[in-house]
Automatic annotation (TrEMBL):
<protein>
    <recommendedName>
        <fullName>F-box protein</fullName>
    </recommendedName>
</protein>
């Protein structure tokens, strides 16, 4: 009963599903493209991102008040330099994020120092956007932010992390109060077998049970409370689906890449797989939510 009510009451009105896809040309250069799947409209990336052969990341898998936090780094070469902008595609406005003070300090060329940002969100108290960079992660194992593994929802950034004794947690950072907290996950799973996503406004955790493409889908009732995870679905086996998912969309759709490279989504209300008619390579396509806004980025306090 609860499962049917949860799936049938979507809170994604006004949202659109985007597809970020990297297309490779005949000389193996990558060209990122951003599409709105509902209208099949291709968005023109802002000038800092109109070059070829770079990797693009949308922080948090979603827009925030109509604004994307996006980053890029070179596909080839040993450079660790990254570039980030805030971008509102509806009004074609973008703001380049300046380098942090730490980036301006010269480093020995042999040191593998990375300046990737790990989250993007909105501070409701200060009426401001925030970009999050974590330097010291000695206690936790966190995935590469350019793999699209972080999630922004309900005013906080969330990641799957591995702590002591290989225990899996969800780590969260409240953007308004600037505090970290963790939520244990009651699943025996490796980071590679778990996926954090959004589902109808709730945080969802998906596991590839025993690596046999039987997916267990749970939603979180309360941050920080292990017992509030509610298992909604056990779905599968789906032998034609490649793991992990490539993202989520409106109406509770979860998107995957099939083993023949066709992109598809699962409608959890019907448990039917629908193809998009688009092909995508491994780790070269991601989906998420976009909500249009005509508010200028400068409309916030900073």
């Amino acid at each position: 009963m609860f499962r049917n009510h949860f799936i049938s009451h979507s809170n994604s009105e006004g949202h659109r599903t985007y597809l970020l896809i990297f297309k490779r040309d005949c000389v193996d250069r990558y060209h990122p493209e951003l599409h709105l799947l509902d209208s099949r409209i291709k968005l023109t990336l802002p000038p800092p991102f109109q070059e070829d052969d770079f990797y693009l990341n949308i922080l948090g898998k979603t827009s925030v008040s109509g604004v994307f936090g996006i980053g890029t780094k070179n596909v080839r070469g040993g450079s660790n330099k990254v570039k980030y902008v805030l971008w509102n595609p509806a009004i074609e406005e973008f703001v380049v994020i300046p380098p942090s003070p730490d980036e301006l300090v010269p480093k020995h060329p042999r040191l593998g120092v990375f300046h990737d940002f790990h989250g993007f969100g909105y501070d409701q108290v200060r009426d401001d956007f925030k970009i999050l960079h974590m330097d010291d992660m000695a206690q936790w194992c966190v995935g590469n932010p350019f793999n699209g593994e972080e999630l922004y929802m309900n005013g906080a950034c969330h990641w799957l992390v591995k702590g002591k004794h290989d225990q899996i947690f969800m780590m969260s950072f409240d953007m308004s109060h600037e505090v970290f907290f963790t939520t244990p996950i009651d699943e025996r799973s490796d980071l590679d077998d778990g996926y954090l996503t959004g589902l109808n406004g709730s945080i969802a955790f998906i596991t590839n049970h025993d690596k046999n493409n039987i997916f267990h889908i749970s939603i979180l009732g309360e941050l920080g409370v292990k017992e509030s995870w509610i298992k909604l679905f056990i779905y599968g086996p789906m032998p034609s689906i490649d793991w992990p998912p490539i993202g989520f969309g409106k109406k509770g759709y979860i998107f995957f890449r099939k083993i023949d490279d066709e992109l598809a989504y699962v409608d959890l209300s019907t448990q039917i797989i629908e193809e998009l008619g688009i092909k995508g390579e491994d780790y070269c396509c991601y989906t998420g939510l976009y909500q249009e806004s005509l508010l200028s980025i400068g409309g916030s306090s900073n």
